[in-house]
Amino acid sequence: MSKLPHFQSKAFLAPMAGLSDPALRLLCKEFGAGLVVTEFVSIHAVNAKADNITKFIEFSEQERPLSCQLFGSDLEKIKQAIKIVEPYFDIIDFNMGCPAPHVTQQMACSALLQKPELTRSIFRTMVSSTKKPVTVKIRSGITHPDKWQDIARIAEEEGIAMITFHPRTVKQGYSGKADWNLIKEMKQLVKIPVCGNGDIQTPEDAKRMLDE
């Protein structure tokens, strides 16, 4: 397992499609974000833009440490995409959290929670394809919070450096309430770092999550 870089704080900016562009990431770094992450990008798009990747995924040196989030499930395409982005980013993150149907229908993101053996192969492929640390973001399950334990164990076994956990199910989407108790349970289950995610809207929320 490759070592994570040093983070100046425990407050990270989550990747958000259509929002976490370089301008927002720079602002968050200026205000103390320990880590910022690119918007998620398809492994197929990365391979298609290989000759122009730094213009396709825009970033600046001031954002470091900087994580690039990928999604997809084709093992060969994952390997190729990692080789393309590896020189430019400090961390390679893998999205298993997005619940959007147009994404999950591709057997990508949170749909992979149903496929533990494919997930294991993906993690193994990613870790063996780069010297940079590989991280993953997951949800708690599809309709019930019943998948995260298996995926967390697999992640640790296969050399994933950190898990970001959004404790909602795919069915919940962004409704209801994130069950922060599950984050504590994951922290007790694995030895690798766990980053909590979901329903942090104020500084007080962030402190409460860390305390809990």
Strand and helix layout:
Elements: E1 12-13, H1 22-30, E2 35-37, E3 41-42, H2 43-48, H3 53-56, E4 66-71, H4 75-85, E5 91-96, H5 101-104, H6 116-128, E6 134-141, H7 148-157, E7 162-169, H8 180-189, E8 194-196, H9 203-211
Task: Count the beta strands.
Answer: 8
Topology as a string of helices (H) and strands (E):
EHEEHHEHEHHEHEHEH
- Residue share in helices? 25-40%
Amount of beta strand: 15-25%
Determine the N-to-C terminus distance: 28 Å
Structural class by helix and strand composition: alpha/beta
Average pLDDT taken over every residue:
96
Ranges with pLDDT <50 over ≥5 residues? none
Major beta sheet summary: 8 strands, parallel
Describe this structure in words.
With 212 residues, the chain is α/β, with parallel strands linked by helices. Helices cover 36% and strands 18% of the residues. The protein has helices at residues 22-30, 43-48, 53-56, 75-85, 101-104, 116-128, 148-157, 180-189, 203-211, and strands at residues 12-13, 35-37, 41-42, 66-71, 91-96, 134-141, 162-169, 194-196. Strands 1, 2, 3, 4, 5, 6, 7 and 8 form an 8-stranded parallel β-sheet that branches. The chain is globular, with a radius of gyration of 16 Å. The model has no long low-confidence stretch (mean pLDDT 96).
